[in-house]
Design brief:
The chain has about 425 residues and is of the alpha+beta class. It has 13 helices and 16 strands.
Length: about 425
C-alpha cells in the first residue's frame, strides 16, 4: 500500500494555515469526546463506590424493628412504645416458612456512650450483639481472625470482632490483634477478628465503627433480658420479599398487641426496593451520560462542518484550478473529507487521552491502604468505540463541505476571482 506523503503535507498545511481557527474548531470535538469518556468513567466509578457500600449485603432482605404505634389496638392507645424479643425469631421461622435466615440484632441501650481502650489508645465505638446467622445477611470481610460462632453465643463468651475504624484507632501499629484484650467501658473482651466490610445499609452507626459481640453477652452485660432491637431476615431463592412483608408485620405485631396494619408502629424495610431503585437510578444516569456526551460530540462535529464550509468557500479559486488541470470530483471529495477526519481525529484522541489522565488521577485519589476502592477508568473497547465514533463524525462533518467543493466549476472559480 503506497502512502501519499504529499497529500498529508497538504492537509497539514491547510489546517495550520489558520491555527487559531483550527484550534478552536478542534476544541469542540476535544471537549465532546472528553465529556463522553469522563462521564462514562466517572459514572462507572460512582457505581462501584455505591455497590462497594452494599458489598456482601443480601439483596433479598427485610429489616424489622419496633417504633411508637400510630394506631390504637385491643384497648391499647396509640403512641405506645414496645420492643421485640427472642420469641419473635421462632414465630417468624414457624409462620413464615419462606424465610431462609432470621438473625436478631441488639444494640446498647439508647443514650449509652461506650468507650473502647487498648493501652494508651481509645476510641468511641458502637456496640452490637449478633448471632452467627447475621453473617448470612451481611457477609463479613474478615481481615484477621473469624466472626462470632455458635459457641460464643451459647457460652456468653467475652469475645469481640472489631470494625475497620475501631481496629485502626486502637491498634495504630497494625498487625494481627487476635488474642489481645481490649476494654469497653469496664469490661474486657478478647479480640477474635477484624471485619473490613462496609455494609452500606447501617443501623446504629457505620459497620467500620462497630464492635460486634455475641448477642447473649450484650443481653447479659447491659441487662437487656431477651430483648431484640432489630431482626434481619432473608428469603429463600425465588421468594419475592415484598409479598412477604404484610405477613411478617402481622406475625410480629399481633404478638405484641400492635395493629397489623400499623406500618409505622411495626417497621418492615424491604431492601429489594432499595436495590431496585439503585439499579433504575444508574440506568437513568447511563442514559443521561450518553445523551450529554453524544450531544456535545455532535455539536463539535457540526462546528467542524461549518468551519470546513468556510474553508471551502475561501479555497474556491484553488479548487477551481484543480478541476481545470484534471482533478476528478473523487480527488476533491477525498481531500476535503481527509482534512475533516484528521482535524476531528486529532482533537478526539487528545480528548480521550486527557479524559484518561483525569480518570487516572481520580483512581489514585480513591486508593485506600494500597487497595483501589473504585475503578474510574474506561475499558479498552470503550476507547476504541469512541475513536471510531470520532472518525465517523469526521466523515459526516466533511460530507457537506466536500459536496460544496465538488460542485465548484472552473468557470465559476475564475468569476469568483
Amino acid at each position: 500500500m503506497r502512502v501519499d506523503l504529499d497529500s498529508y503535507r497538504e492537509i497539514l498545511d491547510t489546517l495550520t494555515r489558520n491555527k487559531s481557527r483550527s484550534f478552536l474548531t478542534g476544541f469542540g470535538v476535544f471537549w465532546g469526546v472528553f465529556m463522553l469518556i469522563a462521564l462514562i468513567g466517572g459514572g462507572q466509578g460512582l457505581k462501584e463506590m455505591l455497590e462497594r457500600n452494599f458489598e456482601g449485603f443480601a439483596t433479598n432482605t427485610v429489616m424489622i424493628w419496633s417504633q411508637q404505634t400510630t394506631k390504637p389496638y385491643k384497648g391499647f392507645r396509640k403512641g405506645r412504645w414496645w420492643t421485640m424479643d427472642e420469641k419473635d425469631i421462632n414465630r417468624l421461622r414457624q409462620r413464615v416458612p419462606e424465610l431462609d435466615v432470621v438473625a436478631p440484632i441488639l444494640f446498647t441501650p439508647w443514650g449509652t456512650s461506650n468507650t473502647a481502650y487498648y493501652g494508651e489508645q481509645k476510641t468511641i465505638p458502637r456496640v452490637q450483639g449478633v448471632t452467627p446467622e447475621y453473617a448470612e445477611v451481611v457477609a463479613p470481610k474478615m481481615y484477621y481472625g473469624r466472626f462470632i460462632n455458635e459457641m460464643d453465643v451459647l457460652e456468653h463468651r467475652k469475645v469481640c470482632v472489631l470494625g475497620k475504624k475501631i481496629y485502626k484507632d486502637l491498634f495504630k501499629e497494625g498487625g494481627d490483634p487476635c488474642g489481645k484484650s481490649i476494654r469497653v467501658d469496664s469490661t474486657y473482651y478478647e479480640v477474635i477478628g477484624v471485619d473490613y466490610s462496609a455494609a452500606g445499609i447501617n443501623f446504629n452507626g457505620r459497620a467500620e465503627e462497630k464492635i460486634t459481640l455475641p448477642l447473649t453477652l450484650v443481653q447479659q452485660t447491659y441487662n437487656r433480658g431477651s430483648q431484640v432491637d432489630l431482626i434481619a431476615a432473608t428469603g429463600r431463592p425465588g421468594v419475592v420479599m415484598s409479598k412477604l412483608s404484610p405477613r411478617i408485620r402481622e406475625t410480629i405485631a399481633r404478638a405484641h398487641f400492635v395493629d397489623p396494619t400499623d406500618e409505622q408502629g411495626a417497621m418492615v424495610f424491604n431492601t429489594e426496593v432499595l436495590f431496585q431503585m439503585l439499579d433504575n437510578l444508574f440506568k437513568g444516569v447511563n442514559f443521561l451520560i450518553w445523551l450529554v456526551g453524544l450531544g456535545t460530540l455532535l455539536a463539535g462535529a457540526i462546528g467542524v462542518s461549518n468551519i470546513m464550509m468556510v474553508t471551502v468557500r475561501e479555497r474556491t479559486t484553488e479548487i477551481g484550478i484543480r478541476r481545470a488541470i484534471g482533478a476528478t470530483p473523487r480527488m476533491i471529495l477525498s481531500q476535503i473529507i481527509s482534512e475533516s477526519i484528521v482535524l476531528t481525529l486529532v482533537a478526539g484522541m487528545s480528548g480521550i487521552l486527557f479524559a484518561v489522565l483525569i480518570l487516572q488521577m481520580l483512581e489514585l485519589g480513591n486508593t485506600e491502604d494500597g487497595i483501589l476502592t473504585a475503578h474510574f477508568q474506561v475499558g479498552f473497547w470503550t476507547a476504541i468505540v469512541a475513536a471510531l465514533m470520532v472518525s465517523l463524525m469526521g466523515v459526516l462533518a466533511g460530507l457537506a463541505p466536500a459536496a460544496r467543493a465538488m460542485s465548484i466549476k472552473p468557470v465559476d472559480a475564475m468569476r469568483d476571482e
